Amino acid sequence: MQTTPSSADLDLQADNLRRAAIDKSVKGPVLFLFLNGAFWLMASTILGVLAAIKLVSPSFLGDCQFLQFGRLQPTHINALVYGWGIQAGLGVMLWIMARRSGQELKGGKSLLYVAGVFWNIAVTLGLLGILLGGSTSMQWLEMPRFVWPILLGSFLVFAWPMAVMFGKAFRPEGFMVSTWYILGACFWFPWIFLTANVCLHCIPSLGALAAGINAWYVHGVIFLFFTPVAIGSAYYFIPKITGRPIASAELAKLGFWGLAVLAGWTGMQTYMGGPLPSWMPSIGALTGTLLLIPVGVVGLNHHLTTLGSHSLVATSPTLRFTFLGSLLLPITGVIFALLSNYSTGVNLQFTHAGYGFQIIAIYGFFSMCVFGAIYYIVPRLAGCEWLSVRLIRNHFWFSTYGIGAIVVTSLVAGLQQGGDLNNPEMWDQDFMQLALNSRPYMVARAISWALITWSNVWFLIHLMLMVAGLGRRSSAPTLLHSAHDDTPHAAHA
Amino acid sequence: MSNFRTFILGLVASFGLPWLCLIVIPVLKYQALQPVAYDKDTDGVEGYYPPAPVHGQGQIVYLREGCSQCHTQMIRPSQIALDGWHKGWGQDQEARPAAPVRSNTLYDYLGEHYAPLGIVRSGPDLANYGWRAPERGIIHQKLFAPRSQHDWSNMPAFKSLYIVRKAQGPVSDKALKLTGKAAPEAGYEVVPTAEAEALVDYLLSLKKDYPVPGVSAAVAAAPAPAKK
């Protein structure tokens, strides 16, 4: 079809207007989620510092019962998972779903605010509940049992409009892999969350099986919520910034269905060699290792899409964070495979390596992709540009080094601990040597979380200024690159 | 819209299968589990396996304080780990036992609402702690002031489970025998609360290596459950 320049201009203008209308329709809820998420992220990193110090010096902060390691650590993780992860994830999901499906959010916006407020109240009550002595000790479900229905209801309020948008925009011939992942996350999380909570809180006395279900839940949230949201976001933003289509639709499909088919089976290998019927951890170990296929395929696809545009990684904050996130995805997969299979897994079982895996999954791979998305989305919603390149760079490098240090030290600590536990020479020793051997790693963990806290305090302030509309008034996006910039990425480009 | 329906069906099927096989069916089957009676002739023991569930009130305190962040309750089989050979991790408290402590089965946790199998082993495994536990006073001392027993212990001091009160009249027989830094100032004594007593009851009830009915190897390895 022949189009005249003027009609192309008109098309572009209409397109921009349509985008602006979509942005406007989701602006409030999305910014609300991001801002609260960033607050919880900061809170969680501070708690991470305290918890790591507590493992070295239990009398730090006195012997206050509310701040003992057994309560502080779950509070730290729950703030990271529910306060930051799922909340910020919902914001990214809502925006991408609206944009990608070309649908404005029709009505129900006040309901979304209510759900958002309830989510945050529930998280606050839940975390206080843990600190005040209501912890259930079920991993990632430590919050007192009255909290989960509120969380589930709030989540569903957000998931419903996304499902409607997806349904309206579904075209048989179109291929929209990012919305596939996001719809998947909308659909899997409530199912997993409901199943786990009903099994653990409502069915009495499941004993060791309850522990298995708990482990299944943790890995379900990682692989069927955090992973799809982050991959969906990367599939949206990498082509957007590089201006190239996704390298291979076939790989994208393979990656999606591979994840969908495998991830539901995994998790129980946490208790390999334990009381569960042995096929359950075995199938978890098998699928946990096979997950390398979808994870590798997605990583390859992202790599092929970015190929040739690496200079943009140096300039675009969004691409830089997303690039790092999608680089960490295969690394997360490899660490998970190491933890899952019986030959290396038994050495890393019940060690700090498991924490390293959870942190690289949530803060490493998921959060980096979400930061990338936030750096793209917020200027479009707030109507102003990010104030400071230095703050973004500060956020990137402190987070990168912090997360790298936490993950590496956790893995090495895991090797050390696992080696000590399985060292025949230590069969008749008490645990003091093991405790002493892991002390340096805990000190490193505290320092790393402190670095990350530093970056997130500034991220929160930066985000608050943006939401308040105090950003730069400019039509030019904030880019990281300048001529005399000698960050390693610039050199690499 | 058929394609949309296929997509949703694909999602339901791909996740529904593991959900059904891994969660729903095992949960239904688990609820039918009952304690198994020992056979006097083959097992040489009378009664039921497991003999009794753990102390529930104390487990609530254990869960509340997040003990499972650092303590596991799960002995792994000796072909994959050395847990079973670790001194004092089973019923036998003496030197290296002739056979490793058996690994745990589903039945060991029967009657527990949630089995705190544990997250990280920053402290020793507690699956069979009841056998190696010292007398109550020493466990209380460990909970109140861990560093009075080990200089570098990374265990938190659960001071809130104890009451420091002015000693009146003769010293309470419940009072902790503390010395050195951990001791209260003169004229004061430290007594456990009901919660601390429940927690200790729970710890003493952790004996998850009773012989499994019909497993002769385990019977040969483990002596009959003694009364303690």
Automatic annotation (TrEMBL), chain A:
UniProt-recorded Gene Ontology molecular function terms: cytochrome-c oxidase activity; heme binding
SUPFAM superfamilies: Cytochrome c oxidase subunit I-like (SSF81442)
Pfam families: COX1 (PF00115)
GO process terms (BP): aerobic respiration
Span of domain Cytochrome oxidase subunit I profile: 38-415
Gene3D superfamilies, per database record: Cytochrome c oxidase-like, subunit I domain (1.20.210.10)
Transmembrane segments: 30-53, 79-98, 110-134, 146-166, 178-196, 216-238, 250-267, 279-300, 321-343, 355-378, 398-416, 446-470
A GO cellular component annotation in the UniProt record: membrane
UniProt keywords, alphabetically: Electron transport, Membrane, Respiratory chain, Transmembrane, Transmembrane helix, Transport
Name of the protein: Membrane protein
UniProtKB/TrEMBL annotation, chain B:
Gene3D superfamilies for this protein: Cytochrome c-like domain (1.10.760.10)
GO molecular-function term, one example from the UniProt record: metal ion binding
Metal-binding recorded as keyword: yes
Pfam families: FixO (PF02433)
TM ranges: 7-28
Top-level taxon in the UniProt lineage: Bacteria
Residue ranges annotated for the Cytochrome c domain, each copy included: 53-207
Keywords: Heme, Iron, Membrane, Metal-binding, Transmembrane, Transmembrane helix
Official protein name in the record: Peptidase S41
Species the sequence originates in: Brevifollis gellanilyticus
Upper lineage: Bacteria, Pseudomonadati, Verrucomicrobiota, Verrucomicrobiia, Verrucomicrobiales
